[in-house]
Structures are given as C-alpha cells and as structure tokens.
C-alpha cells in the first residue's frame, strides 16, 4: 500500500512571503542555520553558526525556491558565489526594513546523550 507524504508548508510560505515583500517593495531576507547539512554559503560571513541572506530579485541571480532547497548566485566581496540552502535550514524569512515575516522551526540535530549516573553508597 502506497503511503502519501505531505510536503512541508515551509517552501510555500517562503515563496509567498518573498512575493508579498517584493510586491510591497520590501527586501526579503532569510536567516539560515549553517549547522544544517548541505548548506553552501561563504563561510567568512557566518556568525554564531548563522547567516542572513538577502534574497531580493534585484540582488540574486537565478533564484530558485523549490520544495527541498533554495539556491541562487549572489555577490560577496565583488565575487559571484553559488548559494545553496536546504529548506529545513531556513529559520526565518523577514523584511529587512521592518522585520515583518515569520519564523520556522528548524529540525534539531539528534545527538547522543550520555545517561546521568549517580553513585549511591
């Protein structure tokens, strides 16, 4: 029996907020969790494992927001750089001018926790 997988709402919201911000002449920014596997951004601009990226159409080249990732080319230090962000690494999208936007719950990495043991006499 085939099981239906419901796609995440996040890429749809990113596309909707992006369109709304551009229609309102606001600048869409995303906050990216750079600890997420597959993130490709200029490392020198990462701060506290995060980076803010301007995804306005007039600052990006070949912007693609699909259901799994967000990718584009952008200038950093006058050099054209390929950017790749898995959708689950996007923590928020907001307008640079007024902060209007939304937060997304990013997947937390599973780490093995050692049991807390106490020696009893």
Automatic annotation (TrEMBL):
It comes from the Bacteria. GO terms for biological process: positive regulation of protein catabolic process. It holds the Pfam family SspB. SUPFAM superfamilies: SspB-like (SSF101738). InterPro entries: SspB, SspB-like_sf. GO terms for cellular component: cytosol; ribosome. PANTHER family: STRINGENT STARVATION PROTEIN B. This is Stringent starvation protein B. It comes from Candidatus Ruthia endofausta.
